[in-house]
Amino acid sequence: MRKQQIAIIALTMWLTIVSLFMLLGQPIDFKILIVLWFMGILVIMALIEPQYVKPGYLRYIRYFTAAGIVIFVAIVALKVLEILGLEIVF
Length: 90
What we know:
Blueprint: H1 3-24, H2 30-48, H3 57-84
Helix pairs in contact: 1-2, 2-3
């Protein structure tokens, strides 16, 4: 198997395990779910990235990673504002 195929299988397994545990815990918090999914993606990306060669598919993974970091920062910022008792009005 190629690294790309192994990464897809590992990511699918990770997302399935996280989703099942969230379903068993009943109160599904999508913020925690997104953060756990993102952590799995980052770990798998770090494991499949070759050291000396940059395949084309890694560029798209980096875009996805950048979008995930933006979402993660937004979630953390909202949690901090919630803890401080401040509110953002959209």
